[in-house]
Amino acid sequence: MTERSLLEAITHPEDLRKLPLDQLPELACQIREELLDVVSNRGGHLASNLGVVELTVALLRALDLDNDSVVWDTGHQGYVFKMLTGRRDLLHSLRQDDGCCGFLHRDESVHDVFGAGHAGTAISAGLGLAAARDRSGKAGKVVAVVGDGALGTGVSLEGLNSIIETTQDFVLILNDNRMSIAPNVGALSRYLNRIIAGERYNRIKQFVRDLVCRIPRFGDKIRRLVQRAEEATKSMIVPGVLFEELGLRYIGPLDGHDLSRLVPTLETLLRLRQPLVIHVLTEKGRGYPQAESEPEVYHGLSPFDVEQGVSKSGPVDARAVTFSACLGDVLSTAIARDSRVMAITAGMCQGTGLNPVREKHPKHYFDVGIAEEHAVVFAAGLAAADCRPVVAIYASFMQRAMDYVFHDVCLQNLPVVFCLDRAGVVADGPTHHGILDIGFWQTLPNLSVLQPADEWELQLMLDAALERGAPTVIRYPKGNAEVLPGDSRPPVEWGKAETLRDGGDVVIWASGREAVRALDVADALAAQGIEAGVVNARFLMPMDGALLATHLERGTPLVTLENHCVEGGLATLVGTEVQKHGMPTKMLCKGWPRAVVPWGSEDGIRRKFRLDTDSLAADIADFVNA
Question: Can 273 be counted among the known catalytic residues?
Answer without folding.
Answer: no
